[in-house]
Specification:
Layout lengths: L2 E3 L12 H7 L13 E7 L7 E4 L3 E5 L6 E2 L10 E6 L2 E6 L6 E3 L2 E2 L4 E2 L5 E4 L2 E6 L4 H14 L9 H18 L3 E8 L2 H8 L1 H18 L5 E6 L2 E7 L3 H16 L14 E8 L7 H17 L5 E2 L1
Parallel strand pairs: 4-5, 16-17
Antiparallel strand pairs: 1-3, 2-3, 2-12, 4-6, 6-7, 7-10, 8-9, 8-11, 11-12, 13-15, 13-16, 14-15
Helix pairs in contact: 4-5, 5-6
Length: about 300
Amino acid sequence: MTTVAHPASQTIPTGLDASEATLRQQPTVPTCESNNECCLVQIYPPDVIEGMLLLEQDEFQIGRSPDSDLPLFDNSVSRQHAMLIRGQDGYLIRDLGSTNGTLINETVIQDDRSLESGDTVRIGSFLFRFLSADSVETQYHETVYNALTRDALTGAMNKRFLTEAMDRELSRSSRAKLEMAVIMLDIDHFKSVNDTHGHLVGDDVLRTFGQRIQALCRADDMLARYGGEEFCLLLAATGRKDAMEIAERCRATIADTPFATSIGPLPITASFGVSVFDPEQIQSVKDLIGSADQQLYEAKRSGRNQVRG
């Protein structure tokens, strides 16, 4: 038997979607009553609406079949995809000959693999975090917080967190009379990648894109996934010259090396639009993003794989 630990019933605050509201309703961590009970928390797609999934049986099957212990109705998941098996030292996971494989910490498993607390488990386009019973208290809230603020696929912050951070940074920059830059980034021809190679390859591209841009970010820069294949980079205390140089470095790091995917290397490019906050003028977050979006449109219209600002 599989148990879902639900939070107490509460009224969903206005302005939150169902997944955020449900996560924020959970004031305490559901407890695992026996010493070797473990848990799965879905972290992607970000619709964590069932709380913590407690693993209570010795064998736990995941697949597209409705008879699975955890049915996932998506074509990226095989009917019998993977099985979690309880042993003396905890759970191990076995791929059941699935089409797209089972990945632990983004590495395809070939044989049975022991699970450690904090491991990510990818089943098709679904991503879970495995928590062992002795670490639930310390890791559950962190997992939930990350689900609310960070895009699990790319590692970037999510749109809601970005807009709140931009509001604060805009106020700070205005008071201190500092410039602030916003860069909108969009992967070129991403729809054709999904249409031609499938959504799992698209996920590979999004994940690598996030990793490459994050590697170029300074300590106080913020990268967020704005929606689909569009990202936003917030650069505090940065003027136009520096912002354009940063955007160009980002463009080059994307275009210069093909992306490793499950079907082999793919050449990928991206377009960039830059806007800069002028502390001598009255501008809103909406104004800055709108200006960067317009520059991004110009980059796309002019042939893509370029920076405009």
